[in-house]
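Subject: sequence -> structure tokens, single chain

Hey, anyone have a minute? Need the predicted structure for the following. Not urgent.
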Amino acid sequence: MFGRYYAIRTPLSRTIILLLTLIYSYIDIFAYMNIQAKELRERAHRAGHCLKGLANEARLVIVMTLRSGEKGVNELSEATGYPQPTVSQHLSKMKERDLVEARREGNQIFYSIKDKRLLEFLDLMKALFCK
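Reply:
Had a minute. Here:
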């Protein structure tokens, strides 16, 4: 009788152990997926923050003009055709979003693209829309 009970219980024990192992592995996978999802949300937030900074025709023109290097506000105004106050306002918004950086020299402020990876993005934009 004991042998028969043992024979029935052994496959059940193996099944329970296998099932628990499977459940724990799924828990690990879900925990990993949640970490990935959280990181993905953070990256998407940063990307959205950057794209909102570029989501304006004047800002795109200004940034495309800055591709060639550092420029002052008056030089950007002449190159883009936008009035100086408009250029200053958009540069301020892009500076808040860490797209451009400013350098003061006397009374003038010179702007340049802060993150050089933005140049790659601008190259892609140019390839897509400026053919």
